[in-house]
Amino acid sequence: MDVVYGIPIIGVVFQFIGYLIDVFPIIAPTIVGAATPIALGALCGFMNERSGVVNIGIEGMMLTAAFVAWWTASLTAQLVPSDVIGPLGISAPLLIGLTAAIAAAMLVSLVHAWLSITVRADQIISGTIINIFAVGITGYLNLLVSRSAPPSAGQFSRWETPTALADLPGVGWLFDAVLSQGPIGLALLVAVIVMQILLFRSRWGLRTRAVGEHPEAAETVGINVIGLRYRNVILGGVFAGLAGAYLTIEFGNSFQGEMTNGRGFIALAALIFGRWTPLGALGAALLFTASEGIQRAVRFGPPEGALGEFLSGVPTQFYGAVPYLITIIVLAGVVGRSMAPAAIGRPYSREKRERRAAAKPDAAESTSSS
Question: Would you list the domain boundaries of the chain?
Answer without folding.
Answer: 30-369
